[in-house]
């Protein structure tokens, strides 16, 4: 779980500054760690549909599309958390019309 210096599919904007994370889950807790509200933008891992939400230190707001979710897995016991966990944690949406 980390912030990335390179562009990734998972972005969050804080105070006008765009930041990137290794996985979708990171975008949900970093705003609480830094005590700031962030606008998160990513994509559904299956359909490519944009997923956006506001994350405050206390709550998630303005989720689009409604019902979007995040996958979570139990990582293997490995020092390579990026490949064992982060590469598998994505946003997904319920896109019935696709």
Automatic annotation (TrEMBL):
InterPro entries: MerB, MerB_lyase_sf
UniProt GO MF annotations: alkylmercury lyase activity
Record SUPFAM superfamilies: NosL/MerB-like
Name of this protein: Organomercurial lyase
Pfam families from the UniProt entry: MerB
Record lineage: Bacteria, Pseudomonadati, Pseudomonadota, Betaproteobacteria, Burkholderiales
Superkingdom to which the source organism belongs: Bacteria
